Amino acid sequence: MIKTDILIIGAGPTGLFAVFEAGLLQLKCHLIDALPQPGGQCSEIYPKKPIYDIPGYPEVLAGDLVDNLMEQIKPFQPGFTLGERAETIEKLEDDTFIVTTNKGTKHHAPVVAIAGGLGSFEPRKPLLDNLSKYEDNGVAYMIKEPEVYRDKKVLIAGGGDSALDWSIFLADVASEVTLVHRRNEFRGALDSVEKVQQLKNEGKINLITPAEVVGLKGEETLEMVSVKDTSTDEVTDIEVDNFIPLFGLSPKLGPIGDWGLEIEKNAIKVDNTLDYQTNIPGIYAIGDVNTYPGKLKLILCGFHEATLMCQSAYQRIFPDKKYVMKYTTVGGVTGFDGSKKEAPKAVVKAID
Question: FAD/NAD(P)-binding domain spans which residues (predicted)?
Answer without folding.
Answer: 5-293
